[in-house]
Amino acid sequence: MGTFSQDRLKDLIENSGLSYRQNSRSYIFTCPLCSKRDKLYLRKTDGRFVCFVCAEGEGRFRGKAEFALAALFGWPVGEVRRKLYGDDFEDKTVDDLLTFQLYDFYGEEDEIVEDVTSTLPTLPWPGDFYPIDDPKSARGLKYLEQERGVPLALALEYGLRYCPPQRRVIFPVEVNGRLIGWQARSVIPTEWHDDDGYCMSSQRS
What we know:
Blueprint: H1 6-14, E1 21-22, E2 26-29, E3 40-43, E4 49-51, E5 62-63, H2 65-73, H3 77-85, H4 95-99, H5 114-118, E6 130-131, H6 138-147, H7 152-157, E7 161-163, E8 168-175, E9 178-193, E10 199-204
Antiparallel strand pairs: 1-2, 2-3, 3-4, 4-5, 6-7, 7-8, 8-9, 9-10
C-alpha cells in the first residue's frame, strides 16, 4: 500500500521550479490563493499544510499536501496524489488531526511573527457541535472508538466534538487555549470525483 514519503515530497518540491524557502520543519511558499509571501507552510514530516492567512473563512486553505501542491503546481489533485503516495495509497490516518498545532510548522530557528497568532480571532463553538461525551455525540464516539481506535479519554483530552446534522467528528485547532478553527471528519463514507475523473471514497470531508 502506498504511503507518504518525505523523499518524494522533497523531490517534487525541489524539481518543481517553484520559489520557496525552508526551515527545519517546513517548506515555505507564497500562497497561491491570497498571494501573501511566506504564509503557506508545508510540514516536511507528514505533508500537512496551512496558509496563515487563508486557514479560516470560506477558503479554509489547510490540510493534506496534495491540495497545496496542486494549487502551487497547477496540476490535478489526482496527479499529485499518485506522485506523492503511489497508485495504491489509501488514507486511514487520524492522529495528524489530533496533534495539529499552528506552531508545528515553525522551526526552532524561526522568529515567530506576532501577527500570525495575535490577529486570529477566538471562535465560539456552534450550537450543534456537542462535546464528544454528550449523549447526542454517541454516533461520533462510536466511530472514533470502533473505527479509529480513539478511546473516549483521548477524545476528551483533545476536546473533540460531534455535529449530528453534519454527521462529522470535529477536531479543534487551538493556539494557547484559544479556539481558532476546526477540522471535520465524516462518520459515513463520502464519495467524489477528482480532476482526472477518478471516483474515490474516504471518511474525511
